[in-house]
Write the C-alpha cells for this entry.
Amino acid sequence: MTIDSVRGAPEPELVQLLTPEGERVEHPDYPLDVTAEELRALYRDLVVVRRIDLEAVALTRQGELGIWASLLGQEAAQIGSGRALGEHDMVFPTYREHGVAWCRQVEPLNLLGLFRGVNHGGWDPAEHGFHLYTIVIGSQTLHATGYAMGMQRDGVLGTDRAGATIAYFGDGATSQGDVNEAFVFASVFNAPIVFFCQNNQWAISEPLERQTRIPLYKRAQGYGFPGVRVDGNDVLACLAVTRKALKDAREGQGPTLVEAFTYRMGAHTTTDDPTRYRLKAEEESWKLKDPIERVKAYLVRNQLADTSFLDEVDAEAKQVATALRKACLDLPDPRPLAMFEHVYAEPHPLMTEEQERFAAYLASFEEASA
Amino acid sequence: MSELKRFKLPDVGEGLTEAEIVKWHVAVGDAVEVNQTIVEIETAKAIVELPCPFEGTVTELLAAEGETVDVGVPIITVDVGGGEAPAEPVREEALKDDLVPTPEEPGMTAPEQPKRQPVLVGYGVKPGATQRRPRKSAAPPPARPQPVDSGRVLAKPPVRKMAKDLGVDLSTITGTGPQGSITRDDIRAARQAPAAPQRPAVEGDEERIPVKGVRKATANAMVASAFTAPHVTEFLQVDVTRTMETVRRLRDLPEFAQVKVSPLLLVAKALLTAVARHPMANATWDGEEIVVKRRVNLGIAAATERGLIVPNIKDAHAKPLPELAEALAALTETARSGRARPADLSGGTITITNVGVFGVDTGTPIITPGEAAILAFGQVRDMPWVHEGELAIRKVTTLALSFDHRIIDGELGSKVLRDVGAMLEDPIRMLAWN
C-alpha cells in the first residue's frame, strides 16, 4: 500500500496487454505484434524456467545446494524483459534472474554450481551479455550505469551495433544509496540503460510501504527520466515495455525506469519463512494473477495451441529438470588447490609458498590412510 | 532386488545444526517419488517441507515426530530397487540397523552416499558437527547420539503406534532392543503380563507434552528467578472506580481516538510514576552490585499460543500517555500474533502481569529474571466497599507486588505498592506525582 492508496488516490494504471483472465488488450503506447509461434515460445520459456526453479528449491531442501532464491511468480517479468534483449545488450542481474539467464543461454547448471559452492558462476559475461550474479543489494545498478556510459563513449549509439544495459533489482534495492546514485549518473549523463525493477512487494520481510510512499516508477520523474509501471505478471506487456525502453536507450534517449509490478510467490530465499511475516490471503489473491495461466488460457482459447503442445512443454520441462538434477549431483567438487590459481596473474612468492604448504598438508592425509 | 538409500537431514538454512521432526507425510510401505514432500521439519528459522531425493518405497522412518535430529543424521530409508514392499515392513533386523551406524555393506548401500559433504554456507556450525574433509579412508558415518538421558523412551514410530493402538504406556516398559529401545515384542510381552507397578497407564488418562520452545524457556526463567531471587509478595485491594471513569473519559479525547485505552494503561502509568519516585524498584542484582536503571523498559507478560512471553516497551518512562497506549496496543498485538522480535523480549527492567484478564483476583507473580519487581493486576469487579463513610458498590481490584528482597526492603516495596494503589484510587495523583 502506498500513500496514494492510503489517501484514496486510485492505484496507478499498469501497462497490460494480457489480462489475468487471458484476454488480449491494447495499449496506445505499447503496440505489440506477436505471432502464434512467438507466443508458444514464450509459454515454453515460462514453464521451463518455473520447473528449473522448482528443481533447484527441491535440491536445496535435500542439502544439495547451499541456498536458492526462487523466481516463482516472477517468470513473466523475467522472460518478457529477457526476450526483449538484443545481441549487443548487457544484463546486470541480481541473484534471482534465472529466467533472464535462460533467455541469455546461460546454462542453468552454472547457476546451480554457484549455489552449490563449487564454482563462481562459471559463465563468460561477455559471451552471454549477462554479467555474473550480484549478491550485494543494488550495487549492480552502478556497474550497469558505468558500463552503459562506456557504451556511450564507444560512439555506437544510434547505429546497428548499439547496445544498452539493463539493470535488474528489487523494490527493496530502491532504498539503497547505490541505486539512487546510479539513477543520478544515468540521468545526467543520459546513459543507455534500463532500470528494471521487479517490485515483488517484499524485501525479505519488509513490505513495500516500508520502501516508498509513492509508486516506485514515479521516482524516475524526480531524477529526470521516464518511469513506467507494467504488469509484471504479463509477459507480453513486459516484452513490449522493455523493448521500447531498450530501443530508446540504444538510440541515445537515455534511461528508463520500468517497474514490473509482480509478486514473489515463494520465500525470499530457501532460508526464510514467509508465513511469519505475510498473510496467506495476499498470496492467494496473487495466485489469480499467475503469469503462466493467462498465457495458457489465451493460447487455448484462441486455438493457438492444443493439449498435445501443452503436454509436450510439460514433458520437456520435466526432462530439463531431471537432467539438471543429475548434472548437479555429478558436479565435481573443486580441487582444493584450485583456490590459489586465479588470485594473481603472475606467480607471487608468498602465494607459492602457501600453496606448497597446503599441498603438503593435503598429502599428509594420503599417507595417513596408506 | 532391494537397494536401500537413506536421506540425511540436510542443513536447509545456512549453517543450522539441527531440526525438529514436525510431521511425517509418508509412512512405511508408501511409494514415494522424487521431490514428493515427505516430512515437515522445524529449524531455528522456519518450518520447512522436505522433498524426497529418491523414488521408491519407504522402508523406515528413522526419527519420530517431535524428535530433534542433528544435521547429517539419516531420517528415512527408501528402497529404490523397485522390489516389492516387504510384507512385514519393520523387522527386528531393520530396527537394529536403525540404531547403529550405517553399515557400509558392499552391494547394499554402495552407490548411496554422495561423496561430498552437504554444502554449508554461512556461520554458526558447531565445531565437529560436520567433518569438512574426511580422510581418504572412509570416515565412519556420524553415529547416532547415545541416549544419555534415561527419561526419554526410545521406540520407533511404528512401535509407538502399535503401543498406542494396544493402549500400552511406553514409559512402563523396559526395552530390550538396541540401546534400550522398545521393540514390538516388548509391547506384546507387556500387554500379556499384568502391568507391574500399579500405574494408571491407560491411554487417555494422561498426556505427555514434551517440554520445549517457549514452555522450556519459561520453565528455565521461572526456576532461575524463583531460586535465585528471594521473593516477597505484598497485596493491596484498591477502589478503582475513578480509574475506570478516567479510562472512559480518556477514550473520548481526540488524542486517544485511534488507540485502545484500557485500565492496564493507567496501571502502567501508575507503576512508571511509582518507579520515578522510587528508582530502586527499577534495578537489577549484579552479584556484587545493585544496578539501578535510569530507563524503564516496561515488560508486559502476555499469554500467547506459543506460551508466556514478556515483551517490553522500551523507554516507557519517557512516553506521553497516548504514545504509551499505542505502544501497549502494538506490543500485545505483536506478541499475540507470534511476531515479537528478540529485541522486544530482552532488556526489560520491570514487569506487569495482567492476571485479571483470566478472571482471577490476584496471584503471587514470579519476577522476570534480571528485574527487581513485578506487579500483578487482578480483575476489576463490583464489590461492597466503604466509600466516604458509607457502604457502596464500587469497582475494586487487587494488586500484588513481588519484589527481590535482596534489592528492595519491605518498606520500599510497600511504598511502591501503596503509591500505585493511591494513583489508581485517585488518578489525579498521577498528575501530582509526575
Q: What stands out?
A: The radius of gyration of chain B is 29 Å. Chain B has three domains: 1-123, 152-209, 213-433.
